[in-house]
Amino acid sequence: MGTVYLAEDLKLRGKRWAIKETQHVLHDYQRFIDEAEMLIRLHHRHLPGIVDYFPPCEDGYSYLVMDYIEGETLAARFTRLGQRVEVTEALAIAKQLCELFHYLHDELPVPMIYRDLKPSNIMMDSQDQVRLIDFGIARHYKTGGNLDTVQVGTIGFAAPEQFEHKQTDRRTDLYSLGAVLYFLLSGGKYPYSSNIPLSEINEDVSPDLSDIVGKLLMTDPARRYSNAREVRKELERVSATLLQDDSLTAATRSFLGPVVIAVCGTGPGTGSTHTAVLVAHFLARKRRNVALVEANGSGDFSRIECTYEGVKGPILDRPTFNLRGVRYAKADDGLDMIAFLSGPYDFIVLDLGSYMKTEWFGEFLRAAVQIVVSTGAEWKRTDILSFFEAYPELEPAHCSLFMPVASKTMIRDLRSLLPEYRVIALPVHSDPFCHQQDTAVILEEWLGLAKRRKKKSGAAAFKWFRAF
Predict the structure, then answer these.
(1) Is 67 left (phi over 0), alpha (psi -120 to 50) or beta?
(2) Percent of the chain predicted with pLDDT > 90
(3) What is the pTM of this model?
(4) For 253-309, how does the pLDDT look when each residue is reduced to its tens digit (9 = 90+)?
(5) Please, what's the b/e burial string for 85-107 (b: 16 or more CB within 10 A of its CB; e: otherwise)?
(6) CA quadruple 459, 435, 44, 149: dihedral positive or negative?
(7) Residue 119, Cα to own-chain centre: how many angstroms?
(8) Dihedral angle, C-alpha 183, 186, 189, 191, nearest 10 °
(9) What is the pLDDT of residues 393-426, one digit of tens each?
(10) Among 90, 401, 126, 70, CA closest to 281
(11) Among 111, 112, 174, 202, which residue's beta carbon has the most beta carbons within 10 A?
(12) What is the CATH number of domain 3-67?
């Protein structure tokens, strides 16, 4: 254990480091030095870079200087999201950890066993990339050894052999991987205390995935998977099955080209751009190829690009840019929609801004999916009703009304006044570029991605999306 500080580099302006301070007893000094030397030699994209260390001083304090990872631990994220993680997200995390364990177990001159995998030791950065931290009890594997010198680990995630005076090996880390998956997908239960198959706890978990986790958690190491590459291959198979079953994929394949989602507001300042960005990045996190087109003259995309690139000067002179997996196309009189429609995109999201100020409204009417955005202000209700009265040709099967931060009374009234249309209440979502669990659940249900949690969320609820 220790304390981690955020430090600013006085020579490299703007560079920040994480510095871990640990106090040791005298006989522990050499162990720290050995650990630091070991970590400096490790180089992998799922590990923080260790750049320097200071051995224990006369008072026993040591310091480890490493890359600062801007993000949060998986434990903190799990708590923030109400102890709920989507299956696809859990699979993505597990596959990254398998990649890292393959490096540690099979690509180093001497295999390294981590021995302390748990959510609080897994950092998630802003791109949902894993970084494994705290190698305090990692050890090199000794062929032919019968037991570890010290039995250590975290109850709930450590393998049985860590508490039975037996030697740990690759399969020890794989057990912990299974325990983490079980914890995430069971709502925070530990496998040793629950002993119930995952698919019986979480109906979103397929029998295949439940069996994989069950094999990882076998008490006898000989009955577990033998290496991380084998586990990753099995997880990839489950991921492929999820994508094949995904109604979003089926709908996409029914088109000769990308699905066009057009977003417009019933007036200025209703949140059209915010909603378009939110939807585009939600789809990108579902591993879809997404383009977001600025079909208005606001210039917001240029300002987004400058903010993202850290540019304070003039607007960057390029028509498109990539941000977190979404291809942004700035407003341009010469923008060729045909080129986008023939491009490698699953979805094209059009941000029209206010419908009263755009020349692109014809594209809105032609779009496969139409989103009308308005505010929850009571005095804006007439704007909403006027919009739908002005365009009776809109088909309710394809068109939805999104209401960010609207009261329950407002939503209930609009659903009564517009019974044929889907009226979607969006929660407060201040950063549309990032994942937020309550918003993701709503968008999944809107797009028909929810995994048949209840009968009432079946065919009738999502018929609008499958209709085209």
Answers:
(1) beta
(2) 37
(3) 0.54
(4) 443 467 889 999 998 888 999 999 999 999 988 878 899 999 888 888 988 888 876
(5) bbbbbbbbbbbbbbbbbbbbbee
(6) negative
(7) 15
(8) -70
(9) 888 888 999 999 889 999 999 999 999 999 999 9
(10) 126
(11) 174
(12) 3.30.200.20
Q: Which amino acid is at 182?
A: Y
Rounded to 10 degrees, the C-alpha dihedral 436/439/442/445 comes to -40
Q: pLDDT for 49-63, tens place per residue?
A: 888 889 889 888 999
Q: State which fold the 247-466 domain adopts.
A: Rossmann fold (3.40.50)
Pairing of strands 3-8, 16-23: antiparallel
User: What residues are paired with 5 via a beta bridge?
Assistant: 19
State which fold the 72-245 domain adopts: Transferase(Phosphotransferase); domain 1 (1.10.510)
The three-class DSSP label of residue 23 is strand
- Written as six digits, the tokens of 380 are 């804006």
Q: Do domains 3-67 and 72-245 have the same CATH topology?
A: no
Sheet holding 320-323, edge to edge: 320-323, 326-329, 290-294, 347-354, 259-265, 369-373, 399-404, 422-426
Which tens digit of pLDDT belongs to each residue from 435-449? Answer: 888 999 899 888 774
Distances in Å between the Cα of 137 and the Cα atoms of 31, 112, 370 are 10, 11, 54
